[in-house]
Specification:
Blueprint: E1 2-7, H1 8-11, H2 23-33, E2 38-43, H3 63-76, E3 83-85, H4 100-117, E4 122-123, H5 134-142, E5 152-156, H6 163-166, H7 168-174, E6 179-184, H8 201-220, E7 223-226, E8 235-236, E9 241-242, H9 254-265, E10 270-275, E11 283-290, E12 297-304, E13 318-319, E14 330-333, E15 338-340, E16 346-347, E17 352-356, E18 366-367, E19 382-387, E20 393-398, E21 401-407, E22 413-422, E23 428-436, E24 442-445, E25 449-452, E26 457-465, E27 476-484, E28 495-502
Parallel strand pairs: 1-2, 2-3, 3-4, 5-6, 6-7, 21-28
Antiparallel strand pairs: 8-9, 10-11, 10-18, 11-12, 12-17, 13-16, 14-15, 14-17, 19-22, 20-21, 22-26, 23-25, 23-27, 24-26, 27-28
Helix pairs in contact: 3-4, 5-7, 8-9
Amino acid sequence: WIRDRLRWREVQPSSEEYIDDTKYDRNAQMQTDLGMKVLQTFHGTPEWAVEEGDHRGRFPADLRIAYRFAQAMGQRFAGTVQGWEPWNEANADNFGGHAIDEMCSYQKACYLGFKSAEPDLTVCWNPCGGINTDSIADAVLRNRTWPYFDVYSIHSYDWPDSYDRLWAPTRRASSGRPIWVTECDRGMAPDPNSPVGDFTESDGRLKAEFIAQSYIHSLAAGSSKHFHFLLHDYKEQHGRVQFGLLRPDLTPRQSYVALATLGRMLNGAKYLGQWVREGSPQVQIHALRGKPDGVERDILVGWSEVPGNWDKRGKTVADWALPTNLRVEKAVDHFGRTIGTEAPQLLNSGAVFLVLPLGGVDSLPLKPREGIEWKSGEPNSVVLQLRTPSANRMKRVQGWTQEHERTLAPGEKGDFEVSVYNFGDRTVKGTLELSDSPTGWTIDLKDSEIELEPMDRSRIEVAIHRPEQDRGGEDNWLEWVFIPQGIPDNEFEKSWLAARIIDPSSTK
């Protein structure tokens, strides 16, 4: 798999015009011809689709535009793009600064658009920037979003030893769907004396050692696919942070060689578990089953590292202490070099891959990764969306994660809007009801009896009053449900919208 990205406006410059042949079409065909599977993402609403008061960095306010674009892209790239992420880091300022309930509504519309074009497409969750927090997971679940993604995508720029702890909300939000890490790295400053922004020799070695640690910890924390960010030479923060595996002239950095080794040694691998060495947390030994060099075998991957920033890494040494009866067919270092038919006595920060006979790890006391509960549910064609004035929004930051929240101060009245869309092929009649609200709040929902033709939208005014005396906690949720007429009482025949409303004076 390879992850790529396109600009919406370069494919659809006007509402009625699609450019027939673009670099994105040519790249997707070339990648397919080379045997790759393509995960594509896009962002940046074209100018023609931006409503007054919005900007190109945000989702189109009318979700029918997003649905039609997803449908068109699914048709256009059928056979050359196997997976889609409908946006990139939409919670972050530089990609629109959306509330999570907005991301859920948009996800539903795009999912339905893609699936209407190509039912077998893999449609991923549009991944957040930063850590998936409990607040994000709560919103994904309360909006009943899990039937609208085949894969739960995340991005991570944290240290590998923290993945398992930080990804607990991710595992909860995924609802049992596969987790793909579609961007991952830890930025490193380039050598200030390098005219092309390259690393020093020692820093290049540290980044190469990071590669296997990142991928293996990712699998152990619950992912099934992991994409390193990124291939070509790429700097951020005005050149102060380098990410690329390749130099500007396309020659490989050490980290590229480490990634190539990982692909070779873990070809088709499934994660089996970790051998936890009590009292030696710096020792990491993980077992997988795959086809290193094309032959089905068991693989042990081991290294030694302590938590810390780059200046603390690459200095730790520890004993393997493997069982004496463990049969090793081949040992390979993190640069792909065969180093013998025995495990080296000492581990350091560079991962060592031990190739064992099939079943060779069965006698080891492996700790399997945590299971994730599967939530059942089916998508339906009616999607709900909340629109609030820009004055009723604020940004909070948890760690690396930006969270844009709806706001209403004690004593304030707000005029919001709930839109109801019908993305199905038949007329829908039903009722929009308020299913949950904070005690004492007044919510005036107008015109709640709705009839929608296919691809129609109904916009319903909602007046909300938060009482002056309500200065309680921040977990204030408003939840609406659309109930179609004449159906059994099935949760997933209904459509849900849940939005958190916080006090703008909040500092949490």
